[in-house]
Amino acid sequence: MLTVTNLCKHFGGIRAVDGCSFTAEAGKITALIGPNGAGKTTAFNCISRTMAPTSGEVWLDGGRIDHLRPHEITAKGLSRTFQISRNLADMTVLENIVCQAPIRGWRGLMKPAMPPEEVAKAEGILEFLGISRLAHEDGANLSYGQKKLMDFAALLMSDPKIILLDEPAGGVNPSLLEEIIGHIRKLNEAGLTVLIVEHNMDLIMRLSHRVVVMAQGQVIADGPPEMVREDPAVLDAYLGGALEAA
Ligand SMILES: Nc1ncnc2c1ncn2[C@@H]1O[C@H](COP(=O)(O)OP(=O)(O)OP(=O)(O)O)[C@@H](O)[C@H]1O
């Protein structure tokens, strides 16, 4: 479904992503892991085109998307979250979610701010996520974890085929973590393809069908979680990072 070929992103002399190739198979949960600074978020940014790659190709369902603009990529069925929530504090949760609905064509520019069909869709998503009670809460009043759930809801407004989740478990408490794992699993079972960047190994091992490991901008391992966990190159990359940090 999603194929990344020889992707590079250089910042001056820094090769943040350096010839990275991997695929996220349709209907599966693929994890992109690696030590801090490995290039995971930069790869996500290049795939979703919030950042232009230096070189390389990104294909979605057999069509090249690396030259498209972010909203065109969303329209093709790829949506993503960010490490830091991008909600607007002075709007309600419902408004935040409805405003993520894609604008289709120039007629879309003339539509009312809260079209009833989009409000109904947003309410359905909030119900699916078990957070209907937050619909009319101001974005400013949400806890960190509630913002994560709202981001999740907003992501689903564009009817994606594949979602890219950037550290969905980052900083959340154990009970919310279980909730998030449940949502990801349920969405995947409903047919959604998932690519996930995450440091929480418990989540990775429990959820992923396949794990792609990056270090220093390159893919150093790729396979089922139980295989990657034992890979000496992976252990070395993590241990190296730990030693550097010590
Ligand atoms: N805008 C930028 N300008 C310069 N260097 C950058 C920029 N963005 C990222 N980098 C560098 O690129 C490298 C990869 O960063 P990136 O954030 O993609 O790693 P990561 O694997 O997502 O790390 P983490 O797990 O800590 O989020 C790092 O050395 C980082 O400092």
TrEMBL record:
InterPro entries: AAA+_ATPase, ABC_AA/LPS_Transport, ABC_transporter-like_ATP-bd, ABC_transporter-like_CS, BCA_ABC_TP_C, P-loop_NTPase. One of its GO terms (molecular function) is ATP binding. Residues 2-241 form the ABC transporter domain. One of its GO terms (cellular component) is plasma membrane. The keyword Metal-binding does not apply. Keywords: ATP-binding, Nucleotide-binding, Transport. Belongs to the ABC transporter superfamily. This is ABC transporter ATP-binding protein. It comes from Acuticoccus mangrovi.
